[in-house]
Amino acid sequence: MRIEVWSDVVCPWCYIGKRRLETALERFPHRDEVEVVWRSYQLDPSVPEGETHPTLPALAAKYGRPVEEVRAMMRHVEETAAGEGLEYSLADGVSGNTLLAHELVHLAAEHGLQGAAEERLFHAYFEESRSVFDVDSLAALAVEVGLDEAEVRAALADHRYRAAVLDDARTAQALGATGVPFFVVDRRYGAAGAQPADLLLQLLERAWAERAPVTSA
Predict the structure, then answer these.
(1) Nearest-angstrom CA–CA distance, 131 and 59
(2) Which residues contact 5 (CB under 8 A, 6 or more apart)?
(3) Burial of 129 (0-12, 13-18, 19+ CB in 10 A)
(4) In whole angstroms, how far apart are CA 176 and each of 10, 38, 65?
(5) Full-model pTM
(6) Least crowded by CB within 10 Å, which of 85, 140, 191, 193?
(7) Distance (Å, rounded) from C-alpha 111 to C-alpha 146?
(8) Is residue 216 part of a domain?
(9) Which of 150, 148, 136 has the alpha carbon at shortest distance from 110?
(10) In this structure, what DSSP letter does residue 128 have?
């Protein structure tokens, strides 16, 4: 069974959703027969590549809300994250274009390290306040998960996975995704948002029951 997860590495709800999916899988009897595939989706593809900016004032401006109101919203997300064992500091965050990060995840997939790369990027961004927007930062994180630095730099320089990243986004739209995280099981069942682990487990159980052949004694 295949679970595809559309996400962005700077999406706080996506990391929460990842933890909840992991919790659901821990309780799923057939977890050893489940493949999790991470798909690319950008929260804000309009951000110019190579530019970064403080997240808090940018969000306040984008939604026309007072900074303190947005800060309070961030605290709510931080509390939710803490419930999943994650430690966020969103008000101090920096945002930027994540195309390169997604390209790195696709490269990692070629080496069987996609899950490790996705986790490392999430953890670096949300819990270590590290950049995931430039080649030097991404190369350093990639080496930590076992990728070759020279290959990473070459792949990010020639954008060999750019088309795959953009194709993921088009597929998400075709499947009806309007935001992330977006979970799709066997291209038949979907769940949008950082759903509770119980709901994700129900999704897995339903998908498994309807794909498993019926046997008679």
Answers:
(1) 18
(2) 17, 18, 21, 36, 37, 38, 39, 181, 182, 183, 184
(3) exposed
(4) 21, 17, 28
(5) 0.95
(6) 85
(7) 9
(8) no
(9) 148
(10) S
Look up the domain containing 11 and give its range: 2-211
Supply the Cα-derived Rg of the chain in whole angstroms. 18
Whether 217 is in a domain gets the answer no
Looking up residue 65, the CATH number of its domain turns out to be: 3.40.30.10
Look-up of token digits 């990842």: 18
Q: What's the pLDDT score for residue 213?
A: 60
pLDDT tens digits for range 161-199: 999 999 999 999 999 998 899 999 999 999 999 999 999
At 71 the three-state DSSP class reads: helix
* Residue at token pair 């109101």: 69
CA 160/CA 191 separation, integer angstroms:
30
Phi, psi of 91 (to 5 degrees): -65, -20
Q: How many distinct structural domains can be found in the chain?
A: 1
Q: Is residue 53 part of a domain?
A: yes
Round to the nearest angstrom and report the end-to-end CA distance of the chain.
25
Token pair of 215, please?
Answer: 């046997």
Above 50 in pLDDT, residue 32? Answer: yes
**HSE (CB half, 13 Å, CA atoms) of 208?**
15
Distance of CA 63 to the CA centre of its chain: 23
Q: How far apart are CA 165 and CA 101, in angstroms?
A: 10
Contact 1, 184 (CB under 8 A): no
